[in-house]
Predict the structure of Major facilitator superfamily (MFS) profile domain-containing protein.
Amino acid sequence: MVVGVLSDLAKSFNVSISLVGYLVTIFATVYAVSTPFVTILTSKYRRYNTLMTLMVIFLVGNSLSALASSFWFMLISRVLTAITAGSIISLIMAFASQIAPQDKRAALVSWIFAGFSIASVFGVPIGVAISTSIGWRYAFWMISIVSILTIIPLGVLLPKNVSQTTSSIKSQLTLLLDPRIYYGIILVLFTAATMYSYYTYIRPLLTTSMHFSLGSLNWLLFIIGIFSIISNRLSGRLAELPNSLSRMPIFYVGDIILLIALPLLLQYKYLALLVILALTLIVTILNAPIQLHF
C-alpha cells in the first residue's frame, strides 16, 4: 500500500519522496531480519495460536499507520507490521505444506505468492484511488478491514492442532554451515532488490518520468498486477519441472538486459511500459522453485 501512496505521504508529512521511500526499505529490512527469530521463538507454541496472534498484531500496526501524524510515527507502525508479516507468511506456508498433497504443493505455493499480485491488481489501484480522492488514511483503514475479514475465515477453517517441531536459535544457526543456504539467500536478496528497485517508485515513475496521466495510473497498476499474477502461475508451473532452479540463469540475464534498457527508454513511455511489464513477468519467477527446493 505504501508504494501506491508515496507521493501523498510525502505531501502529508512534508518530506521528500526519497525519504518516504525508506518506509519500504526499512520495512523490507526488518521483515528479513526479524522473520527467522520470531518464527523460532514462537515455534514452541501452537501454530494456530501463533498465527492468530500475529494477525492481530499486524492489524494493530496497520491501524496505527492510518493514525500516523508524522513520518516517524508512520515508520514505527510500519516496523511493527514488518515484524509480524514475514512470520505470518512462513506459518501460512507451513500450513499449506501440511494441508496440500505432495503433488499439489507447487501449485499451492504459487497461488499463495499470487496473493501478493492479486493485492497489487485490486488493492494498490483501489488504495491509490482512495488516497487521491478522500485521503491516504482511508486506504490504510481499508487494509485493516480486509485484515479483519481475513482473520475470521482463517480462525474458522485452519486446523487447530498440526504436527510441528520446536527448535532453538542455536540449532537453526547451524544451517548457516551449509553453503547452499547462502546461495538461496543471495538469490532471494537480489530478486527482491530487483523488484523493489523499480516497484517502490512505480507511481512517480509512471506519472513523472514516463508522463502518463494520473487518471490512467489505476489502469496501469491493474495491468502490472495482472502480469504479476501470470508470473506467479508460471513460477508454479516451472517448480513442477525437474531441476527447475537450473533454468533460472536465463531469466536473470533477461532481468539485467531489461534493467539496463529501462532508464534509456523512459522518454518513450510505451516502450518503457513494455519493459516494466516484462520485468514484472520474470522477476519473481524464482518464488515457487526456491520455496520447494529449500
Observations:
- Residues 69 and 239 are 44 Å apart (CA to CA).
- The first helix runs from residue 6 to 13.
- The chain has one domain: 2-293.
